[in-house]
Amino acid sequence: MTTVAKAFIGLFWLPRFVCAVFPEEPGPLNFIPTEVVRRYPVFLGRPHHSSFRQEPLHIQRILQVNRTLYIGARDDLFRVELDNVVGEEMFYSKKRTWESNKNDIRICRMKGKHEDECRNYMKVLLSRQGGLFICGTNAFNPLCANYTGDTLEMVGETVSGMARCPYEPKHANVALLQ
């Protein structure tokens, strides 16, 4: 058999072999028609109709406590009162910004991480004794803190998020608090 014939046979069988090795991506678990979704209000990270938000939210966690939604995003924590939702959009009643400090960002960038990764993504958001326990990636140096549920003020000092929160913003996680 000539080299050309062997190459042709290889090219013919290779795609079939590769398809057999890599499984197909599973389809969606659930599908909801667009006309149904349009009936529900959306959250765009704005305090009211006339404001404008330029950056994407990068929502990481959502926690519902009674009729209040807490939304953990990149550098921001939002409080949304569900009883105040009117129309097609939900607006936040309180917003707390928790950004990484410049030194943590500098060290993160020195490690070769992208600028977007060197932010504080809220990955743990739990209800705790009337308040919140929140952990963020903090530019690959995770930190956790307790916050009040009503004013979103930090209570006490931050604690290390090691073994409590992922370092990587893209990593999935589950958190339980006893």
Automatic annotation (TrEMBL):
Keywords: Glycoprotein, Signal. InterPro entries: Semap_dom, Semap_dom_sf, Semaphorin, WD40/YVTN_repeat-like_dom_sf. One of its GO terms (biological process) is axon guidance. GO terms for cellular component: plasma membrane. One of its GO terms (molecular function) is semaphorin receptor binding. Transmembrane segments: none annotated. PROSITE patterns: SEMA. The keyword Signal applies. PANTHER family: SEMAPHORIN (PTHR11036), SEMAPHORIN-6B (PTHR11036:SF10). This is Semaphorin-6B-like. It comes from Carassius auratus. The lineage of its organism: Eukaryota, Metazoa, Chordata, Craniata, Vertebrata.
